[in-house]
């Protein structure tokens, strides 16, 4: 007779916690009239010419596998884009890999660079996938907490304090999810000095590179001395409004990509052929649309930061991405309680900061990738919620649970 199913499962996988973001999506999805500031994706539909290119590709019968690292034509476009936009040079033949989202690029990277027990510094609050992907690749995620005092920017000292003899790599993400914090060239250069000193690799998640609002973007690979140490990760999801396409890419020195292509060969083979044609169109002809979406996010960012501060929820001005990370400490609630009660009371979905690591406690993530009208309504509801909390003598646990 078969033992309990649990017996047959991997201990490592059983120990992974499900994403704290999904939990709130599920709750919100079961309710009517919810305004979601929870989702980390553009509210724009992919520009039409990109969709058209993919449709055409299907009509013309491009339904086969492509080369493992993707269509050479697409890799060439990626190489041109990286050069023109960020001033970094990668050979499309052996330094660029097209992946199934930036997510797969991060996964491939950890699998390719980690030996059992190697440590990777994860800067928290952080995107939910990083630590689990390090663990699944046999490494150990080590948390480096950033602080609100300087807008959650990583400092060289914070890295120094976390380094051990097992530290292999550091994952940098600027602009950051969930804090929106952005590191400019000067700040990155200071970080680079520590990287060099301790001979580390850098996994640079640049998925929000197109979404910066006040300062020019600097790719970490373009910082002097960092090219050889950097695995650059980017993709189409955020800037080009293509989350559902699941298309990303990475660029790195050939020694890394050579190993990664082997993993790709044995796992997904390649990203979907017809969608890669859409990505070629995206890079060739849609930059003006990216720019127009960026301007729209910028307006919304300015609006939401000001509104939250007016409500009394302290919120720093994030330099990029489409998230704000206000403090909810003054309400006395934990971030999970705040998110849950706000959803029940006012039907606004936000994500508890604790979903992004311990240092996110006391904050919530609000995505402003939603229309200005929706944002205005959400701000009204949040204001009502915060005022009700302030005026109420009833312990918050009893306030909304019966609704
Ligand atoms: N990196 C960060 C920081 C993200 O926020 C996300 C998605 O939310 C990803 C990577 C994954 O991107 P993709 O849709 O390309 O897999």
In angstroms, what separates the terminal alpha carbons?
47 Å
Shape by Cα distribution: globular
The description of the largest β-sheet is:
7 strands, mixed
Number of strands: 12
CATH superfamily of the largest domain: Type I PLP-dependent aspartate aminotransferase-like (Major domain)
Say what the CATH topology of the largest domain is.
Aspartate Aminotransferase, domain 2
Major sheet: arrangement of strands: 2-8-7-6-5-3-4
Quickly give the structural class. alpha/beta
Helix content: 40-55%
Structure report:
The protein has 403 residues and is an alpha/beta fold. The chain folds into 2 domains: 3-46 and 288-399, Aspartate Aminotransferase, domain 1 (Alpha-Beta Complex); 48-286, Aspartate Aminotransferase, domain 2 (3-Layer(aba) Sandwich). Helices cover 42% and strands 12% of the residues. The chain contains 14 helices and 12 strands. It has helices at residues 11-15, 20-29, 48-59, 72-86, 101-113, 130-136, 156-162, 185-197, 254-266, 273-285, 287-311, 335-346, 372-391, 396-399; strands spanning 35-36, 96-99, 119-124, 140-145, 167-173, 201-205, 230-235, 248-251, 323-324, 348-349, 351-352, 364-367. The strands form 3 sheets. It has a 7-stranded mixed beta sheet, sandwiched between helices. A 3-stranded antiparallel beta sheet has the order 9-12-11. Strands 1-10 form a two-stranded parallel sheet. α6 links the parallel β3 and β4 (140-145). α5 packs across α6 (130-136). The longest helix has 25 residues, at 287-311. The chain is globular. The model has no long low-confidence stretch (mean pLDDT 95). Pyridoxal-5'-phosphate is lined by residues 40, 101-103, 127, 173, 177, 205, 207, 235, 237, 243, 248.
């Amino acid at each position: 007779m078969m033992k309990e199913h649990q017996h047959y499962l991997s201990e490592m996988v059983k120990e992974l916690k499900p994403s704290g973001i999904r939990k709130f999506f599920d709750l919100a999805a079961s309710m009517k009239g919810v305004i979601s500031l929870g989702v980390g994706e553009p509210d724009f539909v992919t520009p039409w010419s990109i969709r058209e290119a993919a449709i055409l590709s299907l009509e013309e019968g491009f339904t086969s596998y492509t080369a493992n690292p993707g269509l050479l034509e697409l890799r060439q476009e990626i190489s041109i884009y990286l050069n023109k936009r960020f001033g970094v040079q990668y050979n499309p033949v052996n330094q660029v890999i097209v992946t199934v989202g930036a997510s797969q690029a991060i996964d491939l990277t950890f699998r390719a660079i980690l030996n059992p027990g190697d440590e990777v510094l994860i800067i928290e609050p952080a995107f939910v996938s990083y630590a689990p992907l390090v663990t699944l690749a046999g490494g150990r995620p080590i948390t480096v907490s950033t602080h609100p005092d300087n807008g959650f920017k990583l400092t060289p000292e914070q890295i120094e304090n976390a380094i051990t003899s097992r530290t292999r790599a550091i994952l940098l993400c600027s602009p950051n999810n969930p804090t929106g914090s952005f590191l400019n060239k000067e700040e990155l250069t200071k970080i680079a000095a520590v990287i060099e000193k301790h001979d580390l690799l850098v996994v640079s998640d640049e998925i929000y590179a197109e979404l910066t609002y006040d300062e020019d973007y600097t790719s970490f690979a373009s910082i002097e001395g960092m090219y050889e140490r950097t695995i650059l990760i980017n993709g189409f999801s955020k800037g080009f409004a293509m989350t559902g396409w699941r298309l990303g890419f990475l660029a790195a020195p050939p020694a890394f990509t050579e190993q990664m292509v082997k993993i790709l060969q044995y796992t997904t083979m390649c990203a979907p052929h017809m969608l890669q044609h859409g990505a070629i169109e995206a890079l060739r002809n849609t930059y003006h649309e990216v720019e127009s979406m960026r301007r729209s996010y910028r307006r919304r960012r300015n609006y939401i930061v000001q509104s939250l501060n007016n409500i009394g929820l302290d919120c720093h001005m994030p330099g990029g991405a489409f998230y704000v990370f206000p403090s909810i400490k003054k309400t006395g609630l934990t971030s999970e309680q705040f998110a849950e009660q706000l959803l029940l009371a006012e039907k606004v979905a936000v994500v508890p900061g604790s979903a992004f690591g311990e240092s996110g406690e006391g904050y919530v993530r609000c995505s402003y990738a939603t229309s200005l009208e929706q944002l205005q309504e959400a701000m009204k509801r949040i204001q009502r919620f915060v005022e009700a909390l302030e005026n109420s003598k009833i312990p918050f646990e009893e306030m909304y649970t019966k609704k």
